[in-house]
Each structure stands twice: as structure tokens, then as C-alpha cells.
């Protein structure tokens, strides 16, 4: 999902930087609010960030024969919403851009947009919709994590197709979707399962905190 | 969730990630397998004639150092999760 350093025309770098900056700034504001209201959730924030740290470091083989990594952005999105997750994703992406030369500083805005904003936003929408429909939060978190991961890669494909619409936007999009999104399907299922396991433990250890954050389904609270 | 359900889920997860290794057993990077999707996208972009205009300020000097840093990244995450989950579990037992 990383767009490599220097692989995006300057105009697009700036556009994604501006969009991402606004969301990350709002996320920092939200974190302040959350920590003031429920100081207990600091640990949960750390866990959500740490989950992203682990998952995005694992390069896993896919049935398509190429390798990619999960994102871990569904957990943070379900717990705290997309803006907060964008802040956590920024930390992970900076670590990878500076120390690992994965992704880059020029493409940081674009990468935050896919992994920190679009993926988490979709995950958050899916999660909230499931909870509203009174579906168990364990099932909800699976679909949130699965779609959050997959849509991150779909977003990257769109970003590249916008920047390189050759010979046409449609064919470029197909090309990038084959590289990113198709590879990602089994990985996204895996990420969904891993997130369910973590979620199950969170529910066992911190039910009151989850209830306070309002992330449980009405019949679970 | 029941402990058995958790174990079954973990096993399914393991199968998803082991299956490709079995399916393409014997094939390697030289045959075009198990390369990174990021690099594949980079190549696709270069085919269109685009030249990258900026390069990383620092790159891990070798694959060994790169895997060191990846392991470090995973370890940082695992320590944080392990610490809090252990702490919460202990807290729950005390109550």
C-alpha cells in the first residue's frame, strides 16, 4: 500500500498532504478530548497504535504469489474513529519512511490518506452500522477490519490511477487494483481474524471502558 | 468467546498465510513470486515513463539491517500490547 518515495507527481503530493494534515490535526484535537474525558483510554490508544505497528511490519504471502502487509487500522477506527486512527497511522508511516525506506516523506500525505483516513473511515462506518443493527461487536469488528484493510489498498490504487491515468483512467485503475487489492483479499481476511481475537480479549478485560466509549452493541452493554 | 473458538480462528489464520507457501512451493523471487506489491506498483509506474523525482533520505544498507528494523517495529508493538494485556488480566483477577 505504500506509494514509494518520489513516485508521485508533486501536485498530488501537495493535495494529499493538505487533506491528510487537516484530518490529522483534528485527530490530535480529538485525542486530547478523549484523554481528558476518559483518562483510562490512554492505554487503549497505545494498544491500537501498537496493533498497527505489529501488523504493518508483517509482510505476508498472498495466494496471488506476491507479498503485502496488513494495516491494523480497523481496531483503532472502531474504538476511536478515523481521525484518531489517522494520527496513529502517521506515527507508523513515519517510522517506516525514515528507518525502512518503505513509503516516503514526499508520499507521506498520500499514504496517510489511504491507511489512516479512507481505510479507517470505511471501517468506522461499517462498525457503527453493524452496532446500530444490534449485530455482535465481535462480528462487527471482523467486517470493519476486513473492509478497512481492503479499502486502504483500493484507495492506493485510485490514488495511483489519478496520478498516472495512462492509457486511460479505467485501465490504469484495473492494473493497480490487480497489484494491490487482489493480493490483499486473503490478507484482509487474516487481519479480520486477528482483530477479532484482540477484540475478544479487550471485551474480557475491559468491558466497562468499552461501554464508556460507546463501542458495544446495545445488547452487550 | 470459548477458548476452542479462539484456537480455531488462530488456526484458520495460520492456514491463510501458509497456503501460498505450499501452493508456490519451490518458486522464488527469481520466478516472479513473493515480491512486494509496493515494488510491483513502482515498476508499473516506471513503465509509463515516469522517473521518481525524490529518493529516500536513508535506506537500510542491507537486507539484514532491514529485517532488523522490521523485527524492531514488530517488537515495539508486541511489548506494548503484551504489557497492557498482562496488566489488565492481573487487574481482573484481583477484582
UniProtKB/TrEMBL annotation, chain A:
TM ranges: 7-29, 41-58, 79-102, 108-127, 139-164, 176-199
Membrane topology: Multi-pass membrane protein
Keyword Cytoplasm tagged: no
Gene Ontology biological process terms from the UniProt entry: cobalamin biosynthetic process
Record's subcellular location: Cell inner membrane; Cell membrane
Entry keyword set: Cell membrane, Cobalamin biosynthesis, Cobalt, Cobalt transport, Ion transport, Membrane, Transmembrane, Transmembrane helix, Transport
Subunit comment: Forms an energy-coupling factor (ECF) transporter complex composed of an ATP-binding protein (A component, CbiO), a transmembrane protein (T component, CbiQ) and 2 possible substrate-capture proteins (S components, CbiM and CbiN) of unknown stoichimetry.
Taxonomy, superkingdom: Archaea
Pathway(s): Cofactor biosynthesis; adenosylcobalamin biosynthesis
HAMAP family (alphabetical): CbiM
GO terms for MF: cobalt ion transmembrane transporter activity
Recorded GO CC terms: ATP-binding cassette (ABC) transporter complex
Gene: cbiM2
Known function: Part of the energy-coupling factor (ECF) transporter complex CbiMNOQ involved in cobalt import.
Pfam families: CbiM
Protein name, UniProt field: Putative cobalt transport protein CbiM
Record family assignment: Belongs to the CbiM family.
TrEMBL record, chain B:
GO CC terms in record: plasma membrane
Entry's localization field: Cell membrane
Membrane topology: Multi-pass membrane protein
Alphabetic keyword roster: Cell membrane, Cobalamin biosynthesis, Cobalt, Cobalt transport, Ion transport, Membrane, Transmembrane, Transmembrane helix, Transport
Protein name stated in the entry: Cobalt transport protein CbiN
Pathway(s) of this molecule: Cofactor biosynthesis; adenosylcobalamin biosynthesis
Upper taxonomic lineage: Archaea, Methanobacteriati, Methanobacteriota, Methanomada group, Methanobacteria
Recorded GO MF terms: cobalt ion transmembrane transporter activity
UniProt organism field: Methanobrevibacter ruminantium (strain ATCC 35063 / DSM 1093 / JCM 13430 / OCM 146 / M1)
Subunit structure comment from the entry: Forms an energy-coupling factor (ECF) transporter complex composed of an ATP-binding protein (A component, CbiO), a transmembrane protein (T component, CbiQ) and 2 possible substrate-capture proteins (S components, CbiM and CbiN) of unknown stoichimetry.
Transmembrane in keyword set: yes
GO biological process, one term: cobalamin biosynthetic process
Transmembrane regions: 7-27, 68-88
Family: Belongs to the CbiN family.
InterPro entries: CbiN
Record Pfam families: CbiN
Role summary: Part of the energy-coupling factor (ECF) transporter complex CbiMNOQ involved in cobalt import.
